[in-house]
Write a structure and sequence with these properties.
By secondary structure, the chain is an alpha/beta fold. Helices cover 50% and strands 12% of the residues. It contains eleven helices and seven strands. Strands 3-2-1-4-6-5-7 form a seven-stranded mixed sheet, with helices on both faces. Helix 1 runs parallel beside helix 2. It binds uridine-5'-diphosphate and magnesium ion.
Length: 314
């Protein structure tokens, strides 16, 4: 969509009625000072409090404010994905709606992006969250994410980030993958850097996540690793999985014919092993066919098709 909007700020909100007013006021201050055409997209992720009502009032008063409401709570990743989809600016900023991120950092993030990056990640170096339930799990998770994905960003979970729209719009987000945007964007060929940002303690309401997020982060980490390695050739994954089963079946088969043993166990193992190998191979072929015929393209393939039309912005 052609538009002359330069900056889009996207903010997911789930039951943040007290924060909406102050957040908009400080966002407006900062964005007005930038002297560029901008929009603020608030995404109400199915709040049951007064959040959407407050957003509607802001939308009625300020033409640059857009509000999108989900019918139910779909989660922060879905809200961010909708924000990226609807954003019209060439640069997008994402941030939390609970006043923990500070709009004051936006100009520096934009400047950094304009130095020639596609993604600038905020780093809450002086993070104002609980030590045991937040900061320590986050340190471990970020270290692990860095090791496994090979993208050594200090603070993957910081929502305050700046993106070049043409790049982030190509990254498909689902599950809770908003925490893996740096790794996903790298797969799409993005040039990434990070910058220390301000962080405040939560003033109103409460956090929407408990300690169970640790497990979900592990699952998503596994998923993204699989994606990075096997999304272009699913056959390789299924081929690798079938290898030990094939070896087991072969050994049992050789024992069976050389020893002449009778009984039900060994022939059953042989039959099941070869059946499973056939199953894996079929899955691999199906995966390859889906990839070749579907309209889904993994980030790693997009990297090859990224065309940067020009390098001058503003
Ligand atoms: N959020 C959301 N949907 C959810 C959970 C969270 O839109 O299902 C929003 C929330 O309103 C906030 C941001 O995502 O603006 C970060 O959530 P939260 O502050 O609870 O996370 P934390 O800072 O504790 O990591
Ligand atoms: Mg928060």
């Amino acid at each position: 969509m052609a538009s002359d909007i330069y900056l889009s700020v996207i903010v997911p909100l789930y039951n943040e009625e007290e924060s909406v007013g102050p957040l908009h006021a400080s966002l407006k201050n900062v964005c007005d000072d930038l002297r560029v055409k901008y929009e603020i997209i608030f995404l109400d992720d199915g709040s049951s409090d007064d959040t959407y009502h407050k957003l509607s009032e802001l939308h009625d008063r300020y033409p640059e404010v857009r509000a999108i409401k989900f019918r139910k709570n779909y989660g922060q990743t879905a809200a961010m994905a909708a924000g990226f989809e609807h954003a019209q600016g060439e640069i997008i900023i994402s941030m939390d709606g609970d006043l923990q991120n500070d709009p004051i950092d936006i100009p520096r993030l934009v400047d950094k992006l304009e130095e020639g990056y596609d993604l600038v990640c905020g780093w809450r170096k002086d993070r104002k969250d609980k030590l045991i339930s937040r900061r320590i799990p986050s340190l471990v998770a970020n270290w692990l994410i860095g090791k496994i994905t090979g993208v050594p960003i200090h603070d993957n979970g910081c929502s305050l980030k700046a993106y070049r729209a043409e790049v982030i719009k190509k990254v498909s987000l689902y599950s809770e993958l908003h925490r893996f945007i740096p790794a996903m964007s790298t797969l799409a060929g993005a040039r990434i850097t990070e910058m220390v940002v301000t962080h405040h303690a939560r003033k109103f309401g409460k956090s929407k996540y408990g300690i169970s997020r640790v497990w979900r982060v592990f699952l998503d980490l596994f998923l993204i690793k699989m994606f990075a390695r096997f999304s272009v050739h699913p056959m390789i994954l299924f081929g690798l999985l079938s290898l030990p089963v094939f070896v087991l079946g072969l050994i049992c088969f050789l024992v069976l014919i050389s020893s002449g043993l009778s009984g039900i166990v060994l022939p059953s193992v042989v039959f099941l092993s070869f059946f499973l190998v056939g199953h894996f191979v079929t899955m691999g072929v199906l995966g390859e066919m889906v990839l070749k015929t579907g309209d889904y393209r993994p980030e790693i393939m997009l990297a090859k098709t990224t065309i940067r039309e020009n390098d001058t912005h503003k």
